[in-house]
Design goal:
By secondary structure, the protein is an alpha/beta fold. The protein contains 8 helices and 5 strands, in the order H-E-E-E-H-H-H-H-H-E-H-E-H. A 5-stranded mixed beta sheet has the order 3-2-1-4-5, with helices on one face. Strand 1 and strand 2 form a beta hairpin. Helix 5 crosses helix 6 and helix 6 packs across helix 7. The longest helix has 24 residues. The protein starts with a helix and ends in a 19-residue tail after the last helix.
Length: about 200
């Protein structure tokens, strides 16, 4: 995104949403992630397999109901939640076929997921400083026209929307290493809490 904008990442603010089996929305300010939703057992929108934010009272009831062990409940929330829990399916191509055949429930559930994604992007736009250069969409769900255009239509008034279809983690890691090796940027050192040795 920074490359397409034509400015260094350290000089720009972005909202970035990775739309996959889990959905994470992050605020990038001055090139640093300053806030995000945690897709795995965190807050944020529900996703194809993950529940996202849940009402606390009901979650407490489930935890103490005796219906699930801790591990079983983690599985329910991370593998059998979201679209799968509502529709018995998490593959968007199958859900699209159901919508095309007239399944109005499937259409409403997907629309609700899109709404939740856009709502989180609005919150992260504030966290990024309300002056983001772009809203960036990545992940497998960006290949789905309904999801991609639905999110874009809800957030496009905040900032231009850039879409990078698919999951680009390996390419991003390779680009980062190439930038350090070529001298275009310096490697950053991080010191994990409670450790003396610095990891570079």
């Amino acid at each position: 995104a920074a490359g397409e904008i034509g400015r260094p990442l350290e000089d720009i603010n972005l909202v970035v949403a990775h739309l996959g089996g889990g959905i994470t929305v992050a605020a990038i300010r001055g090139g640093k992630m300053v806030d995000n939703t945690i897709a795995l057992l965190g807050e944020g929108p529900f996703a194809p397999r993950r529940t996202g934010r849940l009402p606390m009272a009901e979650l407490i009831e489930i935890c103490y109901s005796g219906r699930f062990s801790k591990d079983e409940l983690i599985g329910e929330l991370t593998e059998r939640g979201g679209l799968r829990s509502y529709l018995g399916e998490d593959r968007m191509e199958v859900i699209e076929d159901r919508i095309a055949a007239g399944d109005r429930k499937a259409e409403r559930i997907v629309k609700a997921m899109i709404y939740q994604v856009a709502k989180e992007m609005g919150a992260m736009f504030v966290a990024a400083g309300c002056d983001g250069e772009a809203i960036v969409l990545t992940g497998g769900l960006t290949r789905n026209k309904r999801v991609r255009s639905g999110v874009r239509s809800l957030v496009r008034q905040l900032a231009p929307v850039m879409v990078f279809e698919g999951s680009l983690e390996m390419e991003a890691l390779a680009d980062g290493v190439a930038a350090v090796l070529s001298g275009r940027c310096r490697a950053r050192s991080y010191r994990p809490p409670g450790r003396r040795k610095t990891i570079s």
